[in-house]
Amino acid sequence: MAEPMTIRTVAPSDPRVGELLRAAFPTDEEAKLVSAVAVDAPALVDGLSIGAFEGECLLGYVLFTRVWVGPGSAQALSLAPLGVHPEAQGRGIGRLLVLDGLRRARNLGECAVIVLGYPEYYTRFGFEPVGVLGIEAPWPDVPAEAWLGLDLDPGALGRMNGVVQYAAAFNEVV
Ligand SMILES: CC(C)(COP(=O)(O)OP(=O)(O)OC[C@H]1O[C@@H](n2cnc3c(N)ncnc32)[C@H](O)[C@@H]1OP(=O)(O)O)[C@@H](O)C(=O)NCCC(=O)NCCS
Predict the structure, then answer these.
(1) Which residue's CA is the nearest one to ligand 1's atom 16?
(2) What pLDDT score does 2 carry?
(3) From CA 75, how far away is CA 111, in angstroms rounded?
(4) Which of 75, 78, 52, 61 is nearest to 139 (CA)?
(5) Is 94 a pocket residue for ligand 1 (Cβ < 6 Å)?
(6) Is 93 in the pocket of ligand 1 (CB under 6 A)?
(7) What is the residue extent of each domain of the chain?
């Protein structure tokens, strides 16, 4: 009988995280990113490195890291990476991870989340384009429809503008 699924925090340095990300993504860039962020204290937010487990087997993973927006360095979160093992995709695990992460972030008093990702996927959770608010990606040629944000505190993103600063490791991947 399959073991029940549990969603719980997991250290970004846990070797299972790297293995899972290497299986979920076509290259090892995301695994390398998480290894680098794991030792970047200002980027890490306690409780927002989250795994979906069947028993001790990691089937999905999501990481939320600190970002700083604009000249005032307003604090927000980045959602990246999100990955589900290819053999476990389409079972709602990605959805559970995103929803759990958003709930935890809200409970921590975080005000907003930014993601660069599939518009069709993230708009399901209420993410909307943020370029129109004057929130800019730090990389060139980011498609407007994939540059998204979600308010945890209503109106938070509307009070921010400028370039989003990510942990240094992100600039080597995107
Ligand atoms: C994207 C990903 C995290 C989704 O996780 P998942 O557990 O398979 O997704 P869920 O079961 O929660 O949701 C499935 C739905 O997402 C949709 N979906 C999956 N990948 C998608 C994509 N690239 N673009 C748009 N929708 C997508 C599916 O079509 C499915 O739609 P349905 O509910 O209408 O059938 C997973 O497919 C994955 O790890 N992909 C490879 C890594 C990756 O690209 N991650 C980046 C995310 S920006």
Answers:
(1) 121
(2) 74
(3) 8
(4) 78
(5) yes
(6) yes
(7) 5-171
